[in-house]
Amino acid sequence: MNLIVAVDKNWGIGLKNKLLVSIPEDMKFFRTETTGKVVVMGRKTLETFPGGLPLKNRTNIILTQNPDYQVKGAVVCHSVEEVLKEIQAYPTEDVYIIGGGTIYRQFLPWCNVAHVTHLDHAYEADTWFPDLDEDPEWELTGKSEEKTYFDLEFTFCKYERKVM
Known about the structure:
Layout: E1 2-7, E2 12-15, E3 18-19, H1 24-34, E4 38-42, H2 43-47, E5 59-63, E6 75-77, H3 80-86, E7 95-97, H4 101-107, E8 113-119, E9 127-128, E10 138-143, E11 147-149, E12 152-161
Parallel strand pairs: 1-7, 1-8, 4-5, 4-7, 5-6
Antiparallel strand pairs: 2-3, 2-9, 8-12, 10-12, 11-12
């Protein structure tokens, strides 16, 4: 299973249920990686999308504790176990965890690949992603050249879980 996330210098990922910054090249990377695949997210993440609608051309799986929550065009699950059962129908390499913070932490143990856009700036944040550089189970296996968006520098990084 994969995850895809953009983090700042402190591994911050969001503030008040919004991304810290929107970079067109990062959004394009996200679309390229996830189109035609399965995306797993929490309810709050879904509700940040335009119209609160599922992402087009993907199988959307929403995790929420609300037993009455329904979303047209998405599969709604109510526990991590239910999501893990649901995704068994798909190749593991086609499943992407896309947030938010709680969802990332809940599914990190099942992920083997992390696509991380590193932003070279520290933003005000209230939600963070676990620091994979400090996690002995993960190693950086790929890194793009430094890119810029106006005065913001960023890199696309790939982390893989070490085979123990």
